[in-house]
Amino acid sequence: VQLQASGGGLVQAGESLRLSCAASGSIVSSSGMGWYRQAPGKQREMVAVLTTVGSTNYASSVKGRFTISRDNAKNTVYLQMNSLKPEDTAVYYCNAIGRGYSWWGQGTQVTVSS
């Protein structure tokens, strides 16, 4: 299984981006999917997670601004990021977790200028 993250870029504060994470197999519907990020000099942190039954959880710093969703037919998970702030600057990673596995995609860089 491969997870391919895309959609990162350089934006100004207040703008939006949508990240995508495409899976090579049909795991999106059967896995817990999540987005994590790692800023320079900091540990990787959870941004948003989506369970198989549709429950979501967000980091307090992004709640109300970010939305995680999935399209099972496209085997893709999205992270809609609105009202971006400079402190959202990081490499964003997608993750698929299930019984006996945890797969990570390569990161996509998000840079927010003030």
Explain what this protein looks like in three dimensions.
Helix content is 0%, strand content 54%. It has strands spanning 3-6, 9-12, 17-23, 32-38, 45-50, 56-58, 66-71, 76-81, 90-98, 101-104, 108-113. With 114 residues, it is mainly beta. The protein is built from no helices and eleven strands. The strands form two sheets. Strands 2, 4, 5, 6, 9, 10 and 11 form a seven-stranded mixed beta sheet that branches.
Terminus-to-terminus distance: 37 Å
Rg calculated over all Cα atoms: 13 Å
> Which class best fits the helix and strand makeup?
mainly beta
Question: Element order, helices and strands?
Answer: EEEEEEEEEEE
Largest sheet: 7 strands, mixed
- Can you give the mean pLDDT? 96
Short note summarizing the structure:
With 114 residues, the chain is mainly β. It is built from no helices and 11 strands.
List the helices and strands and how they pair.
Blueprint: E1 3-6, E2 9-12, E3 17-23, E4 32-38, E5 45-50, E6 56-58, E7 66-71, E8 76-81, E9 90-98, E10 101-104, E11 108-113
Parallel strand pairs: 2-11
Antiparallel strand pairs: 1-3, 3-8, 4-5, 4-9, 5-6, 7-8, 9-10, 9-11
